[in-house]
Amino acid sequence: MNCSACAQSIEKSVAELTGVNSVAVNLLTHSMQVDFAKERTTVDEIIESVQAAGFDASLKSVPAAGSQEKTSKNLNSLEIKIQKEEVALKNRVVISLILMIPLMYIAMAPMFGLPTFSFLKGPENSVIFAFTQMLLTIPILYVNRQYYQSGFKSLFKGSPNMDSLVAIGSSAAFVYGIFVIYKLAYASGHGNLDVLHQYSDSLYFESAAMILTLITLGKYLEAKSKGKTTNAITKLMDLSPKTATVLIDGKEKEIPLDQVKVGDILLVKPGSAVPVDGRIVSGQGAFDESAITGESIPVEKGENEKVIGATLLKLGSITMEAEKIGDDTAIAKIIQLVQDANATKAPIAKLADKISGIFVPIVIGISLITLLVWLLIGYEFEFAFQLAISVLIISCPCALGLATPVAIMVGTGKGASQGILIKSAEALETLHEADVVVFDKTGTVTQGKPQVTDVLPLNNHSQEELLTLAASLESASEHPLSIAILNFADEKNITYPSVKKFYNHLGKGISGEIDGNAYYAGNSKYMNELNIDISGITTKANQLSEEGKTTLYFASQIELIGLIAVADPIKANSKEAIKHLQNQEIEVYLLTGDNQRTAKAIGKKLNIDHILAEVLPEEKDQKIREIQSQNKTVVMVGDGINDAPSLARADVGIAIGAGTDIAIEAADIVLMKSDLSDVVNSIALSHKTITNIKQNLFWAF
What is the mean pLDDT of residues 234-256? Predict the structure, then answer.
């Protein structure tokens, strides 16, 4: 396969089989997914159907568990294939331009009175003039021969597309040019100056060369962003460590990740990534699971609790039992979801192909009618043929090659100037049809970094005293909540003493000694264990929790000193952007891995009715499918690694520029300013660009 027409031809052929429910061909990976009833059709029949369309196919083998290395090799070969394709297109453009520029000059110079070679001037040199143009045109036709292979194949199968129109028009121009060379040669040999004058200006070699060069240039511009999907998958694979530390008879041994087996006991040290999915056997730690769940705050876990591969152990040290390896791990499933989403995303039919499907038969029909009419009214075949060929040449839209790419380039350029990076024409074509916009929460509608929102001193303590104690205790911790408190203290110019005898009580809080006195910080459970009375602030604490805030209590050995609330604040412009979308009758969803309480609190502030909380990455992908099944065009806006499958699955994926590289690679559009109002601007830009494309196609045809 070398173009969308090939993919469409295969899809059409396979879809005609009895029992086939759906078929999706991925031009990027040269793969096909078919949903069919096994009792009504077979794999062999599907392969035969592909072969009937002029291509070959074989059943894709399913890699075994633990085959990450094989997957990586396949991915590398795919990247190489894509790079070769881009280089081939670039070479075709360069060769075509090198030959087209002198061709255009030779053909057009006499019309504009420009200087030219003496051996090309005058009726006596008309054969050389025409033959030179033909020699310059032939290589251009050859390097761009795929348009003829694809175009005529589609035409003969009764589904003409843009390639068919290009093939017919450029072929007609070239064939007519050869006919003219014969006429000029004959007239030159017989001294017929009238024929020489008549035909020397009737050459259309430059038209054939021009349309092929411009369309190839357009395809090259679109191909430059074709490999983004494989980049996203490669970066996802890089999240998992390459090796794991296994414990054998109490001794540590580092082995390649592919050699880890179910049941192996593994050691994970602070700052290391968890190698595979499993269960904690001993120890405890705080895990950064934002890559998988989207939770911005590390999760503290102890014995017998589950851990997820590719998540980062921030604090503590554990031994774990490997339970899921290879393709069964959560990160492997995310990789598979990204691949599947891109493979099954329905290809958007090019508007030019749609028009060509109607336009080509009409043009051919008019050309044949022209030939027959002039023959029937008594004119010679040569004259009637010349007019019929003229219809084909004139109808071939020379501007078609750049009608869409130029509009896309202007649209993407305008978007880039506004901080909106649009990576594909399909994204622009689809975005203006958006029915639903789904927002991830953490880092998308919120800032993604916890901040102090409330400081409530108690028992006659001042705010400064509470912040001094809090900053001193938290200074020895690397927890994001601790960092939020320290940042807040720095903003308030709080100076604080160092803490001694610091201890981290995982799942509860921290303790330490300041100026010889013991102090404690943590959750309500920890305070109750210490017999610290928190009843006086329970109502306020519950209210803060309902608002989606995390509450931290600070106490001495005898009393509660105060409470500090920390939350991931909503971005300043999120509410306004969402309101604009709702005013355009676009449904807005909030999709997050966070808990129900936090999600509902955020949804309430943003006036979002559709809340989907506690959703894992594979479930996010499924939620997008469910919305799409309602015949709605879905736009997904996210920033995290865990958003990659849903960004790829959505009709248009929009990534926040401050997000992860993987999300940015998987998305179709990137908002560099991380400003949600640019989602609204993107949709408006799509509307304007599509209008411009339609206008361009109208004038091209």
Answer: 83
